[in-house]
Each structure stands twice: as structure tokens, then as C-alpha cells.
Amino acid sequence: xxxxxxxxxxxxxxxxxxxxxxxxxxxxxxxxxxxxxxxxxxxxxxxxxxxxxxxxxxxxxxxxxxxxxxxxxxxxxxxxxxxxxxxxxxxxxxxxxxxxxxxxxxxxxxxxxxxxxxxxxxxxxxxxxxxxxxxxxxxxxxxxxxxxxxxxxxxxxxxxxxxxxxxxxxxxxxxxxxxxxxxxxxxxxxxxxxxxxxxxxxxxxxxxxxxxxxxxxxxxxxxxxxxxxxxxxxxxxxxxxxxxxxxxxxxxxxxxxxxxxxxxxxxxxxxxxxxxxxxxxxxxxxxxxxxxxxxxxxxxxxxxxxxxxxxxxxxxxxxxxxxxxxxxxxxxxxxxxxxxxxxxxxxxxxxxxxxxxxxxxxxxxxxxxxxxxxxxxxxxxxxxxxxxxxxxxxxxxxxxxxxxxxxxxxxxxxxxxxxxxxxxxxxxxxxxxxxxxxxxxxxxxxx
Length: 447
Known about the structure:
The protein has 447 residues and is mostly helical. It has 16 helices and six strands. The strands form two sheets. A four-stranded mixed sheet has the order 3-4-5-6, covered by helices on one side. β4 and β5 form a beta hairpin.
């Protein structure tokens, strides 16, 4: 993605149908990208103290910062999100080919559009760019990302959380897929499980805000995370609700970035609408101001809508690749509409429902031991499980996801009579190996 021409053209756009809801919901959908972009542009001038900001002074879109940027111009936070949104609008985010397109878009952006890039993201994309001709860009990015994590153990920066908002719009009607895809897209550059957790939490919060029209309780959404880290995240969220945003600086770490953003939402500053006062609080958090404000802005826009943003912000906000506020409105609507179409087209076939219920009846946990793609998973997802899906061509795939996100196909077949027993046996084997499930005396399911 090298410029605006890589996004679907204005001439090719039909007026958005907003299959996902009424006019108020459409306003909230548009608010996700616009809120993030406005927060980004509002925080740009003050990033790492680039411009002074008195304790009682409201931030303004004056430009400058690390770019330097024009007044109202957004930074890499929104630039990377726009790449995700462009792919999501054009082809959805369900398949690996979409992730390949996202990574290729980021590599092109790094070469031709990036104004400010985090060190970790730059390192991963530079290595991926060396093999630019490879058709498996997402797999290469994931391998580089996890290799970097293995070498350093320090890959929990805020760079994947800042760009995650469009993923929520792509899966408003499919919470199970949202958890998986938000973690997968995070892992393209940030392998630490905490970065995936943060993206899952924030995307589910955005989803709930768009659907319900109100700010969700973030602590309730820790149920979407792996069991072993729920208590820690609940404690971090509670800490953010007790303390003010500036106490979480420095906030380049994904946990403190999320805490600062959530604290800003819970501790607004000054007078004005909830969106304005919370974004003022986010910028006053200091340190990585554009990123904290972009993270907070996406959720604020989801809850309160694009109509809650000041007109002067909407007139000023703009950025790579030559987009303005109305372009983000259209892009957000097309992402949501494409996501609704994909969700309707990916209804889980009856036979996959039946085998999932069979495993549950045996005492195996959905989301813990296994996942049938497309079924909503109650509670959090394990980082290691056996998956099952049915492709559009009728092919069944049985796959394994390891604790570091590695996806390995175990079986691809057009025969359900072969896919079912392999899937059930692999799930049973995983349950036995963990020691948290004992098989029935007669393994009659192998018939």
C-alpha cells in the first residue's frame, strides 16, 4: 500500500449500507477510526515533551512533534491502522491472504509513507522487506517477531495496541473470530502474549461500545483472555481505575499504555464532552501522548460516535495516505459492512456444531482445548488448542495453534468422515497431555 490509490477509490464506493445497524450505530462505527485519528493528531505535538503543555492547558492540534507534522496530521498509529482497515474493507481479515496483504502494506508504508516508526516494528518490517517477493509475508513477519521475542524477551511495546481498532470493526458480528484475529494481527510485529491480550481486550471493548452505545466495563472483558492471565489483567485494570493517567508514564509498555488510556477514560479533565475531556486527560498523561490518545480515542469514538468529536478537530485531522475525516468515515463503514457480510457467509455448518457439542459433552472445554471456527467461545481462549474449520470449497481443515501462536495444519480433506475422528482424537490427546481431562473407559468416538 503505497498511497491513497491502494485504497478502494471514491468512485468505486457505493454509499455504505451499514448492514450492522441503524444511524446511531453507524455514527459509532465511524467514530472508531475518527476518534483514534483525532486522539493521535491531538497528542502528536506533545509526544515525549516535544512541545510544552501546562497542567491546566488544553492540548491543541498544532503539529510539530517527532515528524514534524502539520497541524492536525496523524502519525504512525493511524497510518498503520489505515493499512489494516483498507485490507479489511477490500477482502476482510479472516484468511491468511488478508494478513499477507496487511504486512505487505506495512512494508510499503515503511518505505514510502512512514513518518515515525517504533523500533520494534521497524526491525520486523525491515527483515520482512528483504524477502519482499515472498507470497507468505504474514508468516515471515510472525517468524521474525517471535524470533525477536526469543532473543530479547522484550517485545511488549504498545505498537500493536495503537493500531488494533479496525480489527474490532471487522468482527462486530463474530466475537470468537475477533479474539483470534486481533491476537494474530498483533503477533505480526509483537510476539509477547501481553500485547495480544491487550489487543483482544481493547477490540472487545470497542465492539461492545459500538453495539451497545455505551462504555463497557473493561474488567468484565478479562473473561476473553487465557485463564492464567485474567487475574493479573483484572488487577491492572483496577489500578488504572484508581489512579490518574500520568502515573502510568512511561507508557511505551503495552500494559501501561492500556492503563493510561483506560485511566483517561475514567478520569476526564476539564469541561466538555466525555470524548474531549478524556482525550485531554490522555494527552496530559505525557510520554507517548499520541499513542495513548489514539488508543483511548478509538474506544471513546465507539461509545459516543463521530458526532461527539468537535467540528474543528474533524476539519483539521488528516494524514497518510492523503485521507481526511470523511475518508475515514467511509473506510470505517466499509470495514463494518464487509465484516457483516463475511459473518453471514461463514455460518458454522451443522456437522461442526455437532462435533463441538460432542466434545463438550465429553468434558473438553471449548476455547480451552479446542475451537470450531465461527462458534462463539464462552470465556477466554487458550494459547494452545486444536482448531476446526470448513472452507468455502467444502474442505475441512484440522489445525493446531501452539503457545507462541504457531499455526500448523494437521489435516486437510474433503471427507468429513476423515476430518471428524482426527479432530476429536487430537483434542482428546491435548486434554490428556495437560492432565486436566480423563477419557472415558471406552473411546467409542474413534469408530
